[in-house]
Amino acid sequence: MSTAVTTERQDFAQSDEAMPRSARSGARDGEGLTQALGWFSIGLGLAQVVAPSGVARMIGAQPDDKTTRLMRAFGVREISSGIGILSGKRTEQWVRARVAGDALDLAMLGKTLLSSDGERGKTIAATVAVLGVTALDLLATEKLRASQSDGATRRQTLTAGGEPQTQGVQVRRTVTIRRPRAEVYAFWRNFENLPQFMNHLESVRVIDERRSHWVATAPAGKTVEWDAEITTDQPNEMIAWRSLANADVANDGVVRFVDAPGNRGTEVHVDFAYDPPGGRISAAIAKLFGEEPSQQTRDDLFALKQVLETGEVVLSDASAHKGPHPAQPDPRAAS
C-alpha cells in the first residue's frame, strides 16, 4: 500500500474524533459494548455446547450428566442472546436477557460453592468473573436506555413527524473530507454519483426532484431494488430520505454536512436504518462472514473521501484481493 493511502487511512480512522462528545459516546461506547457482549455470548455459548465438561471443570463443578446437560442448556441460551444482540433488533431486551442469565449462572455457582464436591477456588474465581460481566450487562442496559430518546428524535426527523418506518439494523458513521461543505453536499445530492463510492450500489436513477430508484447487490449474486423519496433537504446541511412502499429493503436515514473544526473541510455524518433481506438473524450471520454494514459504510465513506480529495478511489492490494494471495498490482488500476 502506498504511503499516501496509508496516511489517508490513518486520517480517516481518526475522523470520528471530530464527532460531538455525546454522539461519540453513543456510537462507540454503547454500540461497542453491546457488540462485545454479543460476541462474548456466542463464544461462551459455543464452548458450553461443544465442551460442557471442560467448562464445568473450569468453574470447579463436577462434570456429571446433570451438570453437562445444564451447561448445554446455558450454552444455547448464551448463543440465542448473542445472536439477538448482534441482530440489532430489541437490543435492550436481549441485553436484559443476559442479566437474567447472569442471575441463573450466579445461582448455579452458589450451589456449586456450597457443594462438598466442588473446587472452591475455581468456583470463587468464576463467581467474581460473572459478577464483572453482570456489571457490564447492567452498564450496557443503561447506555441503551439513555440512547433511546436520541433515537426517537432521529426517527421523527427522518419521517417528517410521521410514524417510524424502519426498525431494523442501524448504522452511524462519520468521515472528514478536505473539501468545502457546499461541494460535498452538491456531490452527494446528485444521487447518480453515489455508485462511484458505494461498493454495493449498482445504480441510482433520479425520477423527479424528490424520488429516485435504487438498485443494489445482495448476497448470492442477487439484486434488490427500491424507490426512495427525500423527506428533508436543507442545502449544504442535511438530506433525509425514506424508502417507499414495496421496497425490497425498507430503509431510511439522514446525512449531515458540518464544517470541520480548524478549517479541515467537511464532516459527513451518515445515520440510517434498514430491514435486511432475510430478517435480523440473516444480518447477524452476515456479520459473521464479514458483511457487517457498519464496516461497509466505513469503507464507502473512505472511498467518498478519496473521490472528492483525489478524483479517484485508490485500492490497496489488500482491498483489491480477498484472502491470502501473492502481492501484485491491481489489474483494474492499469485499465
Structural features, described:
With 335 residues, the chain is of the alpha+beta class. The chain has 2 domains: 19-157, no CATH class; 161-318, 2-Layer Sandwich (Alpha-D-Glucose-1,6-Bisphosphate, Chain A, domain 4). It is 54% helix and 17% strand. It has 11 helices and 7 strands. Strands 1-7-6-5-4-3-2 form a 7-stranded antiparallel β-sheet, sandwiched between helices.
Count the helices. How many? Answer: 11
**Tally of DSSP β-strands:** 7
* Anisotropy-based shape: elongated
Helical/strand content category:
alpha+beta
Order of helices and strands: HHHHHHEHEEEEEEHHHH
Average pLDDT confidence is 76
Count of domain modules:
2
CATH top level label of the largest domain: Alpha Beta
Termini separation comes to 19 Å
Biggest β-sheet: strands ordered side by side in the sheet: 1-7-6-5-4-3-2
Name given to the CATH architecture of the largest domain: 2-Layer Sandwich
Radius of gyration: 23 Å
Which spans have pLDDT < 50 for at least 5 consecutive residues?
A: 1-28, 152-165, 316-327, 331-335
CATH superfamily membership of the largest domain, which one? START domain
Helix content: 40-55%
Under CATH, the topology of the largest domain is which?
Answer: Alpha-D-Glucose-1,6-Bisphosphate, Chain A, domain 4
Largest sheet: 7 strands, antiparallel
Beta-strand residue fraction: 15-25%
